[in-house]
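Thread: quick sanity check before group meeting

JM: Hey all, I'm pulling together slides for Thursday and realized we never actually wrote out the predicted structure for the chain we discussed last week. Dropping the sequence here so it's in one place. If anyone has concerns about the input, flag it before I start.
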Amino acid sequence: MALQDLTPQLRTRLSRMERAVGWFVFLATALLLFGFGYYIYHTAERKGWFLIKANYFTYVLSSSGLNVGDPVVMMGFPVGDITRIHAMPPGNPHNVKVEFEVRDSYFRYIWTGGSFVKVNSADFLGKRQLEITRGTNGPAICVTQPGFIKTIPELEQIITIETNRWQLYQDVFDENSNVVFGAYTMLTRSNLERMAQLNLESNSICAYDNKIKASHIVATWHRPTHRYVNFTARSDDVWLIAMETPPISDQLQAMVSQVQSALPGILSLTNKISAVLDNAATATSNLNTTVTAAQPMLTNFTVISAQLREPGGPMIWALGTNGNDQVQGALTSVDALLTQLAGITSNLNAQVQANTNLLGGISKAVTDADDLVQGLKRHWLLRSAFKTKETNAPPTTVKPLLPPRAR
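JM (edit): ok, ran it. Output follows.
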């Protein structure tokens, strides 16, 4: 049906529908283009398409475990990617050349002193990874500041106007080839006066303005001349020495070889351990026999200990079962003897108490006996029988006692 055959209401409604569909298609296309652009921008930002990149290369013994596109790390961060891997031509002392790029600002950590590439194992399947170490001294290998060759008088005029901006783009040596001023030294009037006295070639030096930076790598450090030179894609100044560790497979093979060489010693040690275990089993058997033989002794010791713990046990164990009766009888006899002695003493005491003149008579008898002996000593016939033997001891003189007043 032609559009002219429709009523005005239908034509109006159809026009509105066409406009809505057009707007929907326009918005969907705009959203699709916006999403696609955002994806491209995010991918470019993630891959560092908008960042400055510095190209480096290194030599390795084998390309095993390395692939184009693999990440390059520094201090644990992914800083770039491997761009090319190829074998060197015959006759070249190196085997494989690996080229890679490092993004800004990580390439500013790569200096001439202390920066090298470590080829590490990434997993147990033979995968390897490049790791760049951070520089410790020396100038940076790649820079984005362009350099200018100027005479010392020109620089003296420039630094008067532009202070704290111009720095050395090279190392300056004296007549003895000693470094007087290193690269990056800030140029001052005193420094320039000292350089003028060194009789430099053309009385000029290479310097750069630290306020000027390019959007790409402009120069690399040339080690033989100790200065920065213009960057070229085929420059050898961006070569980093590689410290290559053996792959995991080689390390495992070496470990297996060591195990194989050590197996005879391990088997010998196993035999020795087996012999020691046999001896230990024999010693255990002998010990069991000894313990069995000592068991009756332990039983007897237990019985003796039980007897000793009983009341009077030590006496019974020492004197026998009749020892207690014998000791009891001896004690009874001693008791009877003591009773008899007590009776005798009592009778004697009673007799003394009954006869009061007994002690006086005894005393008088003793006195008379002493007088008799003294008389016999003086008798001329018996005097010689009571002589005393003389000694060599000097006679002792006894001083007479004096009354207290005479003292």
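AS: nice. The chain has four domains: 12-47, 51-144+214-245, 145-212, 264-325. The helical segments are 8-47, 152-161, 189-196, 248-309, 313-319, 323-354, 358-378.
JM: adding both to the slides.
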